[in-house]
Amino acid sequence: MSAFANILAGGVFHAAVLFLVAAGLQLVFGVQKIVNLACGSFYALGAYFGVTFLTYAHQAGVSDWLILPELIVAGILLGFIGPPLERMLRTVYDRDESFQLLLTFAMVLMFQDVFKFVWGANPRSLDSAYLVYGTIRAGDFSIPVYNLLVILAAIGVAAGLGAFLQRTNYGRILRATAENRGMAEALGVDVRRIYATVFTLGAVLGTTAGALVVPTAAASLDMAVEFVVEAFAVVVIGGLGSMRGALAGALIVGLIRALSIVFFPEVEVLAIYMIVIGVLLLRPAGLFGKAAA
Amino acid sequence: MKLSPAATAAIGGTVILAALPLVLPPYYVGLMIPFYGYAIALLGFNLLFGYTGLLSFGHAMFLGVGAYGAAVMTGVLGFKSFELTLLAAVAASALIALPVGFLCVRYTGIFFGMLTLAFGMLFHSFLFKFYSVTGGDSGMRVARMNILGLGFDKYNKIEFLAGPFYYYCLALLLIAGLIMWRLVHSPFGLHLRALRDNARKAEYLGVHVHRCRLAAFVVSAMFGAVGGVILGFRVGLADPELVYWTQSGQLVFMAVLGGFTNFFGPVIGALSYILLQDQLQSLTEYWRFVLGAVLALIVIVFPEGISGIAVEFRRRLGGTRA
User: Fold this and answer.
1) Which structural domain range is residue B102 located in?
2) Pairwise CB contact (< 8 Å): B245 & A225
3) Which of A90, A214, B198, B225 has the lowest CB atom count within 10 Å?
4) How far is A113 from chain B (nearest CA, A)?
């Protein structure tokens, strides 16, 4: 039984990270109607930069106990890449969605070599630095406190994003822009600035997720292209553009992955794609999406 | 008799391609084999993308069907005939594309793209995980085959690829091109373009929208399998990398690079991509970055690709319309 709980805890941790990236993807899709293939690259960028940032912080004598806030800062610092990339995307807003998809694919290719150039081809990792927080044990069940904190942080982000979108004025403006761009513009919303903000926010969610995962897994060149498919699976299952969907989708994908790795290793990813296809066929708008398309 | 611009371009291109082995060193001639594979696959891909308006992000799946089909035919079943392998791969591809396409073509736009991506990755993880059937990440070997019943045993593999097989592929490309030309200029091709531009109107006028999309999907899958057999045969290996989603992205890249609005665009795209990649790889370790920048430039500034630039250039020169 406790082995099962261990697996579930691993799945929830994975789901927490997936949720952060998927939330960024959803935000950008919801408001800008762009499916951002580069979200996996943001994630990888966060992971690589997290390693570098922590290494420097360690040399500067910052206590190991601050690892979690440090990584969050690292993720947020990377937000500066948002505006220039958004500026690039701005050239294709009025065009067919295949062009938008391709432009983000171009970003994936470029990021791939930026990683190789800056950090080299070998995976980079932090040596179990996350164990500073210790591990909670109950019988056979154990979970590193760091993982627990990341899960809590993701829940915090989910709640914060929800409150931001539903209750603040800016959130209302965002939703209005997502609903009807032309009307929002006519009512005096500066859509350009909204787009730049949203894209940056989406990027920060991705980079922070990457930074948070790096103490437990190495940053490698493959992680960008591998993660993007999983993030895609999450948003498709949950429904494109829906935050609640991202949460549900992340949990489904995270748990299925964790369970199948243990019980049916050969169907690990297979199971995820099957669910994706099933959802797309039965409910193309996803579990929480609006009926459309 | 006055030839149309398209016929002139096709004949001119064929003559140049046919002359290449006479002037180029074998390395470059061998490099052209993947070009033929991709060009044929892209002719099919563009029927779906350019003419039907459906962007598939999982089309590499059918390259994989071709390559693995060749591996099964030669390695497992022991056939030696390239033609038989082609037939089997094309048939297998059509059989797979039929149900997959049936499910996918109910959607358009981004949903079609994601659904094809999911099917492509499903196929990839099947190849990757079912080690006993597919060899997992080490793939399956594709043995040497006869073409037209001739073994060319006195040639080693490189000479074979640069000599007889080169012309064989050229012939395949010509046949594929002719078939595709007939297709897109037939009533079926017109149906596709009509439903791309306005599906509801086309349906109102009696076009079977779903049936036509499905037909385009299956045809493009068959072309993809032919390309996959060539690619697999050249490397002598069918591996799951060929089916990964980035490979599908690469196909889209080639189509857009050449220009998907033009019939010859995909062929031009395949050629320029192969040459560009080869040159970049010899120049720098960071060729992907340059390729990405080129793609971004094409998407932002020249959405009609190289063929679009060429057509525009002709127009500026005061030539006739292309």
Assistant:
1) 5-316
2) yes
3) B198
4) 5
